[in-house]
Amino acid sequence: MAINTFPTVENCASIGREKDTVVADMDGTLLRGRSSFPYFALVAFEVGGVLRLFFLLLVSPFAGLIYYFISESAGIQVLIFATFVGMKVSDIKSVARAVLPKFYSADLHPETWRVFSSCGKRCVLTANPGVMVEPFLRDFLGADMVLGTEIGTFKGRATGFVGGRGVLVGKNKAEALTEAFGKTKPDIGLGDRRTDLPFMANCKESYIVPRKPEMKAVTIDKLPKPVIFHDGRLVQKPTPIMALLTILWIPIGFPLACLRIAAGALLPMPLVYYAFRALGVRVTVKGNPPPPAKKSTGQSGVLFICSHRTLLDPIFLSTALGRPIPAVTYSVSRLSEIISPIKTVRLSRDRAKDASMIKKLLEEGDLAICPEGTTCREPFLLRFSALFAELTDQLVPVAMVNRMTMFHGTTARGWKGMDPFYFFMNPSPAYEVTFLNKLPVELTCSSGKSSHEVANYIQRTIAATLSYECTSFTRKDKYRALAGNDGTVVDKSKMGNKVMGC
Fold this sequence. Notes:
Low-confidence stretches: 489-502
Structural class: alpha/beta
Largest sheet: 5 strands, parallel
Strand content: 5-15%
Mean pLDDT: 91
Shape: elongated
């Protein structure tokens, strides 16, 4: 059977399909890219580290040769073995839930999505391991059924081999489809390669998705559920070239990060801006920062209300001001406290005690706080806690935004003590600090506004400055989505999960 036997997906009508069932392949069909290597590489790096990624990169050329000259099934088995052997299944599921959806959603095929999203029942049939793709397909694309390759397990760890009927390609796909639907034929079948033809022949209508590298992915606004929270250290999709560059950069980047951190921690704060600039860390300052409070006149300190991008926000705020600004936190790792060039003060979660402590700190001078309570990577602001608005009317909103090209400087699942190192391991990290106008007294609680009104106003002001979107999501929402808990479990190996302000 030839591929050109079926019409292309552009010829498939998407109107009036609410009662129809669609079955689609994943790589090259639902996704624009045909290669699954980047997603295996993400699992390899996030679970197994740089050595596992290096092993996968070494093995991938042999997997490619086997794929083209022996069989697609055998080539995929090699990738599965190199990636998964010895890994905890729980770790694989964690990465599938917290890391992969961001990268999958950035490569969604527009024509396939047009048809897939219009149908009432959606099924994905893929050679990829089901454990790897199911969270994205079900939670973000609304798939009702996911039929993927089963991985072998032993005592909670992956063996590296496949289970069930083996890798789902060719006839195995057709058999899995028949087993799932019985004698009922799905209405629409979508595929992109010769090995998809057997299952497509079992559908009432079948369409080929032609390869068009120039086609742009589905935009975020057209997704049924935007990816607001995601985890993982890698910023860019690890194609083979990008994976190699990452591996080669780490032995250079880590010593460079240590040097940058040492400069920030040991040099006087007025010199840190210039030291960062000399070491490739760009700091851009906008707006007019207020002068420091004068203790001799009894003037209360200014409370800087910062959007929260990484635990380094107060440090870059201090860098922009040229003077150290203390920050209040819920918790940071002990390592982060040791290397921090500014004073950090832990909150107790007792509202009365925390309010009293913050007031006392403001009597001593300026103070920084991040009322979102945790970081968000995407252009969204989480809900602002309103406690700060009750304590002073000296409020200065600060819009913080950063740029990382290789590594994310935040994590919800890993050890937060490494966050500053990963941020400074980027070849040329950047921070932009924008000081907004001090809040007028008539907009503060001292003029009768409620603390929630003040907090919401500042959130909207910062969001408008950054062209971000305000949300009502909280720390608990983030950690439930990424780590499977509400972020309140204290674990010495993962201290710092409850960051506020630093």
